[in-house]
Design a protein that fits this description.
heterodimer; A: 249 residues; alpha/beta; 6-stranded mixed sheet; 4-stranded antiparallel sheet; B: 295 residues; mainly alpha; two-stranded antiparallel sheet; 4 strands; 71% helix; globular
Chain lengths: 249, 295
C-alpha cells in the first residue's frame, strides 16, 4: 500500500469510527516498578473526559504511556483505529495528538514565539498564529520574552497554545490548573470550552474537580494503577459526595 | 622602532596574529564539542582524532586522488562527518542509555584506534601539505608582515563559527537542537525524530572538527598525533567558557588563543600552561564557566 492510499484509509477510519482512543488492559513499568495494572477506558470523538484520582494513582503515567514515554508497556492502545503499542515515540503524535506535560515543558533557551512554533505540524487544520494570539493575547505581548521568564499562568497558556498550532485533534492535558490563580483557571476553562466547540477530543488529568466537573462528559476515577469507576456527567450530582471521599478532598 | 611594553611592535603583532589563529582553531573545536555534549551528553574524546582525520583526508585526497585544497575544504567535512554519523548510529547509540562515562571511554578508545592505525601506516613524523598557491606569501602592513594563509584561516574559521551560531540560534533546526538539549523526551512527544537529530548533530560536530583539520593541514605537520595534544587544550577552553552558549565557546576560544600568544611574548616559559592557569582560576571563581549557566 502506498502512502497516499494509507492516508486515505486513515481518513476513512477517521470518519467511520466514533472512537478516538481505546486503552485496553494497559500495564506500564518504570524499570522494575509496575505502575499501571490493566487500565481500560475509551474516549469518543469530540468528548472531554477526565482522569481523576489521588497523587500516585497512575493518571500521569497513563498519559505518558499513550505517548510511549515510559519504560515498557503491554496491552493495547488504539488511536484513531491505529494500534500504537509498537510505534516509535515520535510517530505517535503524528496520529494527531498534542501532549501537554504536567511540568509544562517550556524551553528556557527559546523565546515565547519560538516555543510556540516549535512542535512540528502533525495534521492540517491547526489553528493559525493569529487565532492563537487572539485566544491568548498575553502571549502576543510577551512573544519576545524568554520562555521561562513568563508567569506560571502564562507558561501554562503557552504549553497549551503550542499544541493547538499543530493540528492535533486529540489533546492529552496533564494537571493544567495546578498552582494557578483562580482567574487563570477560569480562563483555561473558557479555552477548553472553545476547543470542545471546535470538535477537539480532550483527556484531562485533573486534581481540581470543581474545574473539571462542568466541562467533562465523563469522568474516570483511577486508583492503584487501574480505572475503578466511570461516572457520566448526568450521574455526577448524585455521586459527588462519594467522589469527594474517594479523592480525599 | 615602536615598542609595546618593551617588545617591538612587529613581534607583538606577530604573536597576536598567531594567537588569534590558534584561537580560531580552539573556537571551532570547542564549538563542536559543546554542540555534541549539549544533545548527546557525552564528552567526545574522539574530537581530536576527527580533526586529525580531516587533515589526513585532505593530505591523502590530494596525494592519491588529486583533490585540491578548495574541494577538500568542502568534501572532507562531509566525508568525515558522514563517518561520524556512522559512529553514532552503530556504536554510540548502543550505549546511549548507559552512564555517559561509557561514551567518553568509547570515544577515547576509538581515538586511540584511529591514531594507532595511521601511525602504523604513516609513522609519527608528519607530512607537509602545500599551501594553495593564491594563499602563499603575505602582506606587508607596514608595522608587520601578515602571512596570507594565516589571515585566510582566521577569516574562514570565524565565518564557519558565525554560520554555526546562525544555524543554532536563528533557524528552526537550531531551535529543535536547543530544545532537544533541554528536554529531548518532550521533543519526541511533539513528533520530532530525536534519534535522527542526534545522529545529525554528532555528524555536524565531527564535520566542524574535520573542517578545522583541513584548515590546519598547510599550517602544521600532518601527523596522526596532531589532534591529541590539541584536544587537551580545547577541553580546558571548554571548561573555561562553560557549556551554555555558542557565542561563549567562540569568544573563549579566540580569547584563550590571544592570551596564549601574548604570554609567548612576555613570559614564554608559561605559554604552554597559561590556559590551564586560567582554567583553575575560572573553576575556583565561576565553576560553571564564564558563559555557562549556573546549575
Amino acid at each position: 500500500m502506498n502512502t497516499a492510499e494509507a492516508y486515505e484509509t486513515n481518513e476513512f477510519a477517521d470518519s467511520q469510527t466514533s472512537e478516538m482512543l481505546r486503552v485496553k488492559d494497559l500495564h506500564a513499568f518504570y524499570g522494575e516498578s509496575h505502575i499501571l495494572h490493566g487500565v481500560n477506558f475509551d474516549v469518543k470523538r469530540g468528548e472531554l473526559v477526565t482522569l481523576l484520582g489521588r497523587n500516585g494513582a497512575g493518571r500521569s503515567t497513563t498519559l505518558k504511556s499513550i505517548m510511549n514515554m515510559v519504560g515498557r508497556r503491554t496491552g493495547s492502545i488504539v488511536i484513531n483505529g491505529n494500534e500504537t503499542l509498537r510505534m516509535k515515540p515520535h510517530h505517535i503524535p503524528r496520529l494527531g495528538i498534542g501532549y501537554c506535560p504536567e511540568e509544562r515543558g517550556i524551553f528556557a533557551s527559546l523565546d515565547v514565539h519560538e516555543n510556540l512554533l516549535l512542535p512540528p505540524t502533525v495534521r492540517s487544520g491547526g489553528m493559525s498564529l493569529d487565532e492563537i494570539y487572539s485566544m491568548f493575547p498575553n502571549l502576543y505581548e510577551r512573544r519576545k520574552s524568554q520562555g521561562t521568564r513568563l508567569s506560571g499562568g502564562e507558561q501554562q497558556m503557552l504549553a497549551m497554545a503550542r499544541i493547538l498550532r499543530t493540528g492535533a485533534r486529540l489533546l492529552l492535558l496533564d494537571e493544567i490548573t495546578e498552582g494557578l490563580a483562580p482567574v487563570i483557571v477560569q480562563k483555561l476553562g473558557e479555552v477548553l470550552m472553545q476547543l470542545k466547540e471546535r470538535g477537539m477530543t480532550i483527556v484531562l488529568v485533573e486534581q481540581n474537580f470543581r474545574f473539571a466537573a462542568p466541562l467533562a462528559d465523563r469522568h474516570f476515577v483511577m486508583d492503584h494503577g487501574q480505572i475503578v469507576e466511570e461516572i457520566s456527567a448526568a450521574q455526577l450530582p448524585s455521586r459527588r459526595e462519594h467522589l469527594n471521599t474517594m479523592l480525599g478532598v | 622602532m615602536t615598542m609595546i611594553f618593551g617588545v617591538p611592535l612587529a613581534v607583538f603583532m606577530g604573536q597576536l596574529t598567531l594567537g588569534l589563529v590558534n584561537g580560531a582553531f580552539y573556537a571551532l573545536l570547542s564549538l563542536g564539542l559543546a554542540v555534541i555534549f549539549g544533545l548527546l551528553k557525552i564528552v567526545n574524546f574522539a574530537h581530536g582524532a576527527q580533526y586529525m582525520l580531516g587533515a589526513f583526508a585532505a593530505l591523502l585526497g590530494f596525494r592519491y586522488l588529486g583533490i585540491n585544497y578548495w574541494l577538500a575544504l568542502i568534501l572532507v567535512p562531509l566525508v568525515v562527518g558522514g563517518f561520524g554519523m556512522l559512529m553514532e548510529r552503530f556504536l554510540l547509540r548502543r550505549i546511549a542509555h548507559l552512564d555517559h562515562l561509557y561514551g567518553l571511554l568509547l570515544t577515547f578508545g576509538l581515538a586511540l584506534i584511529f591514531e594507532g592505525t595511521l601511525v602504523n601506516f604513516f609513522g609519527v613524523s608528519g607530512a607537509r601539505y602545500a599551501t594553495p598557491e593564491v594563499l602563499q606569501g603575505g602582506l606587508n602592513l607596514g608595522f608587520m608582515f601578515l602571512p596570507t594563509y594565516r589571515a585566510w584561516v582566521l577569516v574562514a574559521a570565524l565565518a564557519m563559527c558565525l554560520f554555526t551560531w546562525f544555524m543554532i540560534e536563528r533557524t528552526r533546526l537550531g531551535a529543535y537542537l536547543r530544545a532537544g538539549t533541554e528536554n529531548s523526551e518532550l521533543m519526541q512527544a511533539f513528533g520530532v525524530n530525536v534519534p535522527l537529530l542526534i545522529t545529525l548533530t554528532y555528524g555536524f560536530g565531527v564535520a566542524l572538527a574535520a573542517f578545522a583539520g583541513v584548515l590546519a593541514a598547510p599550517l602544521y605537520p600532518v601527523s596522526p598525533t596532531m589532534g591529541s595534544s590539541l584536544l587537551i587544550v580545547v577541553f580546558a577552553v571548554v571548561v573555561i567558557g562553560g557549556m551554555g552558549s555558542i557565542m561563549g565557546a567562540i569568544l573563549t576560544g579566540l580569547g584563550m588563543g590571544v592570551i596564549e600568544g601574548l604570554t609567548k611574548v612576555y613570559y614564554p616559559e608559561a605559554s604552554n600552561t597559561v590556559i590551564f592557569l586560567v582554567m583553575i582560576l575560572v573553576l575556583m571563581l565561576r565553576p560553571a564557566g564564564l558563559f555557562g549557566k549556573e546549575a
